[in-house]
Specification:
The protein is an alpha+beta fold. 23% of the residues lie in helices and 31% in strands. It is built from three helices and four strands. Strands 1-4-3-2 form a four-stranded antiparallel beta sheet, with no helix packed on it. The radius of gyration is 13 Å and the shape is globular. 17% of the residues are buried. The model has no long low-confidence stretch (mean pLDDT 92).
């Protein structure tokens, strides 16, 4: 999974453990491990489709953003319309 540069360190420290993604279809699967730029990998622990109404300011902050508008500026790109809440754990390289 790709993360904006400013989110990478908080993800590595375990401060961010979820991400809102707007895709056509899921691009990750539960149990999947995905390399992270700068080291380590993300293991997806759950993924579920939600609606934009479910994206609250609290959820945006848990995802590493100031609020919903800040999150949507990053999450909304491409032609995807389905909203997914991806929960994950970061693992250091080699673990």
């Amino acid at each position: 999974m790709m993360f904006a540069k400013r989110l990478r360190e908080p993800v590595r420290r375990g401060e961010i453990t979820c991400s809102i993604r707007i895709w056509r279809q899921p691009r990750v699967k539960v149990g999947g491990r995905y390399p992270m730029i700068g080291g380590g990998e993300i293991e997806v622990t759950s993924i579920r489709e939600i609606s934009l109404r479910d994206v609250t300011p609290e959820l945006a902050r848990r995802s590493g953003f100031l609020g919903v508008v800040d999150l949507l500026k990053v999450a909304r790109h491409g032609s995807g319309e389905r909203v997914y809440l991806v929960e994950f754990e970061h693992h250091a390289a080699g673990l």
